[in-house]
Write a structure and sequence with these properties.
Elements: E1 2-11, E2 21-29, E3 34-39, H1 43-49, H2 55-69, H3 81-88, E4 96-98, E5 102-106, H4 109-120
Antiparallel strand pairs: 1-2, 1-4, 1-5, 2-3
Length: 128
C-alpha cells in the first residue's frame, strides 16, 4: 500500500456566500510519481447557484487542473509532481479552488481516483 493525498476541486460561484459544488478530484501519490486530476462540471447545479455564471470560463479553469497534471503542463512542466500538487492545492479565493488535502492508502492510484471521483463529484442517480 502506498500513501496518497487528494483534494476536491470545487466551484464557488460567489465566494462570499460559501456555496459550492464539487467538480473534480486531484490525487497525488508520491511513491508512484502519480499526479492526476479528473473534472466534470454539472452545469445544471452551477446554474442553480448562479444563473449568470460564465460556464465556459469555469470549464476552462477546471481543465487547467487536468492540464497541469499532464506531461505538457506548460509553465509547471519543470516542477515535480509534488510541487505541482502543492501549487494546485494552495488556497485561493477564486471561483475554482480546491478543498483541504486529505490522506489515504492505495495499491492503485488511478482506481482510487475513479472511486473518489464517483463518490465525491458525480451526481447520484435520482431516487424512486
Amino acid at each position: 500500500m502506498d500513501a496518497y493525498e487528494y483534494a476536491v476541486i470545487r466551484v464557488v460561484p460567489h465566494v462570499e456566500r460559501g456555496e459550492l459544488i464539487n467538480a473534480g478530484v486531484l490525487l497525488y501519490c508520491q511513491p508512484r510519481g502519480y499526479l492526476c486530476a479528473r473534472v466534470e462540471l454539472d452545469e445544471r447545479r452551477l446554474r442553480a447557484l448562479d444563473p449568470a455564471a460564465d460556464v465556459e470560463a469555469v470549464r476552462q479553469a477546471l481543465s487547467a487542473y487536468e492540464l497541469a497534471c499532464g506531461e505538457d503542463a506548460g509553465p509547471l512542466a519543470e516542477e515535480s509532481p509534488g510541487s505541482r500538487f502543492r501549487w494546485l492545492t494552495a488556497p485561493r479565493s477564486t471561483i475554482v479552488q480546491t478543498g483541504p488535502v486529505h490522506p489515504g492508502l492505495t495499491d492503485d492510484p488511478e482506481r482510487e481516483l475513479d472511486r473518489l471521483f464517483a463518490r465525491l463529484v458525480l451526481t447520484p442517480p435520482a431516487g424512486p
